[in-house]
Amino acid sequence: MNPSLKLLLVLLLSLEISFTQKLVVNLLLIAVGLGLVITTRPGLLTLLRLLVVPAIPAATLSITIGLFTPGHDWFFAAVLASRVYVYVLLGSAVTLSTPPLRLARSLEQNAHLPAKFAYGTLAAINLLPRIITAVKTIKAAGQMRGVTLSFWSPRLYFKAILSAITWSEQLAQAMESHGFVENQPRTVAQPIPLSKIDWLRFVGSFGLAQVVLIAFP
Fold first, then answer.
1. What CA–CA distance (Å, rounded) separates 216 from 192?
2. Which residue, of 83, 145, 199, 201, has the greatest Cβ tally within 10 A?
């Protein structure tokens, strides 16, 4: 399926289940999302993170609603907990099956997202490893001066923001030097097709989800 339609489908389903209280539907979506994630052949550690990390907010929601609300509604607690896994697994199915560059190109070409937003977001994603390295460097430099910059230290984030501002200026200069001009027609290096089959898959998947929502309590 086209990356933009795939992302739109997940957003629509996530928005829809946010206004429903159907546990069976959530469980079915969890099974579908897990199956799609497995088809991408993720590493064992990645799969464990997708299953274990969401358990923390899911358990927190369940315990809070089940034990500390006047109604002690464990069914609603289970619905909220299952929603967490639906969001995580469906979102992971999109991110694991679609490279960020292909998604950015699809959003620009098919969804007509402005190029500055599409490639700006892509650049931010690609800068994440550099940001992590910079934070480690800032903490190490502080320790050399006898200053411990903890995770919640404002000084650590202030220094990281200064580095990010410098990178943003360098990134803008790099994009302009490679011929990027805002609001000007651009050719594409890799066209992302949007065919009738993609639309049929999108409409069919969304329609099937509506049938399931109506059929199950």
1. 37
2. 83
Q: Decide: helix, strand or coil at residue 18.
A: coil
Beta-carbon-side half-sphere exposure of residue 133 (alpha carbons within 13 Å): 5
Q: How far is CA 97 from CA 88, 89, 100, in A?
A: 14, 12, 10
pTM of the predicted structure, to 2 decimals: 0.79
Give the 3-state DSSP-derived string for 200-211, with helices as H, strands as E and coil as C: HHHHHHHHHHHH
Decide if 97 contacts 36 (C-beta within 8 A).
Answer: yes
Residue 40: alpha-carbon gap to chain centroid: 16
Pair 139, 149: CB distance under 8 Å: yes
Helix residue spans in the chain (DSSP H): 3-17, 23-39, 44-52, 55-68, 74-97, 100-109, 115-126, 128-144, 154-177, 196-215
Contact 115, 184 (CB under 8 A): no
Residue 172 tokens, joined:
């803008």
Residue 82 CB coordination number (10 Å): 22
Output the CA–CA distances (angstroms, integers) from residue 16 to 10, 20, 197, 200, in the order listed: 10, 7, 24, 20
Per-residue pLDDT tens for 14-47? 999 888 888 889 999 999 999 999 998 888 898 9
pLDDT tens for 146-158 read 877 777 777 787 8
